[in-house]
Design a protein that fits this description.
By secondary structure, the chain is mostly beta strands. Helix content is 0%, strand content 43%. The protein has one domain. The protein has a seven-stranded antiparallel beta sheet, with no helix packed on it. A hairpin with an 8-residue loop joins strand 1 and strand 2. The chain is globular and about 30 Å long. The chain starts with a strand and ends with a strand.
């Protein structure tokens, strides 16, 4: 997986799968979105919601990396914890 920022497309979640779309995707209006920042070395930083619904970096447990089920240029699917 290359370095990229992915935003949670909660409208597309199904079963125990969370769907993410790349930065710049044409989402419908929402009151903020959570995301994942994937570094070039594969590290993952969770992006949560700050007080004003803008993204904020969230400390996460590095041992609890998400289980990637599918990834391509415009869709990332992970198993929800």
């Amino acid at each position: 997986m290359s370095a990229q920022t992915w935003w949670h497309s909660f409208e597309e979640d199904h079963d125990d799968v969370a769907v993410y779309r790349p930065d710049g995707f044409g989402f419908p209006p929402a009151r903020g979105r959570r995301g994942l920042e994937v570094g070039p070395d594969g590290t993952v930083v969770e992006l949560g919601l700050g007080r004003d619904d803008t993204p904020s970096r969230v400390e996460s447990d590095t041992a609890a990396a998400p289980e990637v089920l599918h990834v391509d240029d415009d869709r990332l699917e992970i198993r929800r914890r």
